[in-house]
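Lecture notes, unit on protein representations.

Consider one protein chain, 196 amino acids long.
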Amino acid sequence: MPWGLDGPGGRTLGAYPDCPDPLDTTVYPSYGDPLDTTVCPSYREGMSTQPVPDDVAEYLAALEGERGDAVRTVFETVHAAMPEGYELGSFRGSPLWTIPLATQPDTYNGEPLSYVALMGQKNYNSLYLMWLYSDPVEHAQFVEDWAASGLKLNMGKSCLRFKTLKDVDLDIIAKTVAKTSVEHFVDNYERLHNRG
C-alpha cells in the first residue's frame, strides 16, 4: 500500500513518496515500530525513531475519511521532521510533542513545554505550532513562506487550521518543524520568562 500521491485517499508525504503507508499493519505489524531500512531507506533515515504511544496510534487510526487521511499525513510529516530531543506524547490521545521535564524542569506550570500538537476537530483539523506565538521572526517567516506557496493561510496565533491535504503545504510544515532545536526553544522560553 503506497504512501504517496497515488496512495489510498490521495495521501502524500512530500519527501517520501515511495514508502509504504506507516498505518498499514500488513507492512508494519505494530504501528510506530522502527521502519525496516531494506523496505524504505529514505523514509527511515528521515523519520523519528521514537515509538508512537498506543493512545496516539488509536487516535490516528480512528479518524475517518478524508479528514483522517489529512491528519495522519500531517502527523507523519511532523514526526519525520521532528528534531532530536522532543518527546512524542499525547493530550487526550492526540499527538503532542514536548520538551521533557528532564531537559527543562523549570516551566511556568510545572508541565513539559509544548512544541507541536495535532488534533482532529469537529469542523476542521488543527496543527498547533506553539513556538511561533513567542517567536515573531519565525512567525513572519512562516507567513511569508505560506504566502509564496499560493495557499490560503487559515491561522490563529499558533494554530494552523485545515480540512484536507489540499489546504496544507507539507514541505513548509516539515521545514518549519525541523528548524527549531530544543536548545533554541528553551533559550527563547527562558528569555521571555525572565523578562516577565
